[in-house]
Amino acid sequence: MDIVHRIGIKAPAADVYKALATIEGLAGWWTRDTTGNAQPGGHVAFRFHTVTGDEIGGFTMGVLEQTPDHKVRWQVEDGPAEWLGTEVEFQLSQQDGQTIVMFGHRQWRDAGPGGEFMAHCSTKWATFLLSLRELVETGRGQPAPDDVKISNWH
Amino acid sequence: MDIVHRIGIKAPAADVYKALATIEGLAGWWTRDTTGNAQPGGHVAFRFHTVTGDEIGGFTMGVLEQTPDHKVRWQVEDGPAEWLGTEVEFQLSQQDGQTIVMFGHRQWRDAGPGGEFMAHCSTKWATFLLSLRELVETGRGQPAPDDVKISNWH
Question: How far apart are CA A141 and CA B40, in angstroms?
Fold first, then answer.
């Protein structure tokens, strides 16, 4: 089972790639508490907090691939059980003057009870991809803890 | 292949159900040009236009199931080839004082070239579910043609 999304960003691929392939870029649209080494073979830790500062969890990604202006691919090394071993991929292309991001969070084996956790993550990824677009187009995204809340699960 | 989403709405299930099970409700968050009979056995036509009024396509759904305050299920009878025969489902439950919408657009057999069309629809559904939440919580959604544009594909 895969989560897939597609979004178009009115900016050069190099700008989108920078937001996906650097710690500073990632901290600008996913979660401010992003640390580590975003180079291939490196590990990046993404931690999430409430607006009042309590930690509510996070993920550690192993960077499998970075192809400048084209692709970033991670494997989940630490996080919720359902995420372990899954892969996250961003592929960039050009269409109609936009940089198209094809997003995949792939190889889910367990969607959680009733499929609710995977469904939550799917919607949440969409809001973060809108935040990525906002960051690249305007210079200011909505990373956690200022992210769009979508439910009782944040 | 399924598209799945989950969103929480701070309103009674009856209010969310009304937005999913009536023509007026659907026109308030998905597309203003919604016509037909939303009762089980009925057919509902959803047409999309540009802001300048040009028609850009649409879908016709057969209503398979409506269980008040719990579930709405449609089958796609007309629309893009990739949508034909797929099913769209909204399941409602209560958690932490919110009405949780579990959304599924199921039984895709063809995701389009490179999987791009299904990925586009996944992201677009997320923005429409945020519009559904906005409609129910505030009385005003963002149905097409005033929907959030996500790419060169609208």
Answer: 43
